[in-house]
Amino acid sequence: MASHTEKPLFGTVPGGLFRLFAGSSRYFFADLLTHLAEDAFGVAGEIVTRKRLYASISEFIDRTGRASAVEALDGEGGPSGPSYINAYNRLVETGWLIEYRDRYRKVVDFDPAARLLLHTLLDIQSGRVRSYGGAVLNVLTLLQSVHTEPSVKALNVREAALAARGFMNHLRTVAGTMRRVEGLIMAQPTAAALVRRFVRDFIEASVVQDYRNLHTRESPYRFRGEIIELGETLLVNEETLSAVAEGWVKGGIARKAESAREEIINDLRDVIRVFSAIDDHVRDIETTTFRIERRMTNVVRFSDRMATISTERILTALELLGKSSLSDGDVVEARVRLQLESLPMASQQLYLPPKRRREPVEREVEVRPPDPALAFYLRAVDLFQLRVGVTPERLAHYIEEAMAERSELPAAEFPVDNLDDFLAFERLHESGLFPLNDRFEFEERAGTVTNDWIERRDFVVRRKCEAENG
């Protein structure tokens, strides 16, 4: 049996956090914490003083109603005093806020664990929309960086595993949320309530931003095979695993490369496992969505039929009865449709789940030889870039040839005989920048210098002596 002092789940959370939501003022404090997270503590990098927090709480009380705030705080049985001070003291007492000194000022901040808990609750409350494409691309980009630079980007293996696990948890959350919404929709007694519930809980509370793209050419799942293949490539490459393990040791998240190697393998296997099991979760979401949309389609179809056809027929019948010569006691014969004792059972009334996709047909990929014209074009582009690109070595060579044995050379004496000279002459102001600044010095002068190629401000380039370089 575990010791009483061992708290693996709640060990880092202040014990009084949830006492704030146990009294009659729980709704008041829930709204107050939301306000503080967006107002006083919403600006990144701002140090919040106690005076600033008092003003924020007082503004919230004035906005929500001072009478209701006093009634909520009186229910806590605290000391008498201003409402904003009582609310502040209650937050400090329950562990949501902590005070510390910054030189001569008393400043306030959320408890670190309380801040994480609050933002998690706010995310659950607002149902933050998430992009599936962004989540998948994030994992792919992280793995690609590890494959390219395993020692430098080693820590991205852990980030990719965390992103993959978060993505899978989000998929499970979406499936559970949609099943809950389905239950709420099916339980509505009237068509109007059903439509209202559908709009509020299925459309407004949607948690998948790019759900409609899942079956298009831009589907985020088109990268799934690449992620799995890349993860398996990293797993079988011993050199890459060793480099990543060394990177973990240098990054401080592991002490020894041997132990880090096992964790790296587990993280990569988690990524592969997540993206190999996506189909089942997506199919669950699709099936639930299909049932909800079919139910809404039926409601709209039959509501429209009742609101138009039936209403018009009733109005027409009443109008004809009013014009007839029948008395109140006369019997009117009316034809009625046969009412079956059992419900009709046909394909239109039965729920049919969406058909599974057929497995793609394997076909041989045709590898075409490269186009010779394209190869010549790319070669010409490379030669052009080499011609117009002025490197530090090329610029230093131009200056050395122009200056020869001289210690300095004015702009007018630099040769500009061809295009290569012009490109170097136009970039001579970079001779005073790194990495040429230890050999040459560039100084501008009054006036301009003109040649057959360009007109620019006058300057002089000096050679630094060895004593200055030393």
Task: Name its key features.
55% helix, Arc Repressor Mutant, subunit A, mainly alpha, 6 strands, three-stranded antiparallel sheet, extended, 470 residues
What would the average pLDDT be, to the nearest integer?
A: 78
- The percentage of residues in β strands lies in 5-15%
Silhouette: extended
Work out the count of structural domains.
Answer: 3
Q: Care to give the gist of this entry?
A:
The protein is mainly alpha-helical.
Helix and strand layout, with pairings?
Blueprint (H helix, E strand, L loop, with lengths): L25 H13 L9 E2 H15 L1 H9 L8 H11 L3 E6 L2 E6 L1 H15 L5 H17 L7 H31 L4 H14 L19 H13 L1 H14 L5 H20 L1 H46 L48 H17 L3 H12 L4 E3 L8 H8 L13 E11 L4 E9 L2 H4 L1
Antiparallel strand pairs: 1-3, 2-3, 4-6, 5-6
Helix pairs in contact: 2-4, 6-7, 6-9, 7-8, 7-11, 7-12, 8-12, 9-11, 10-11
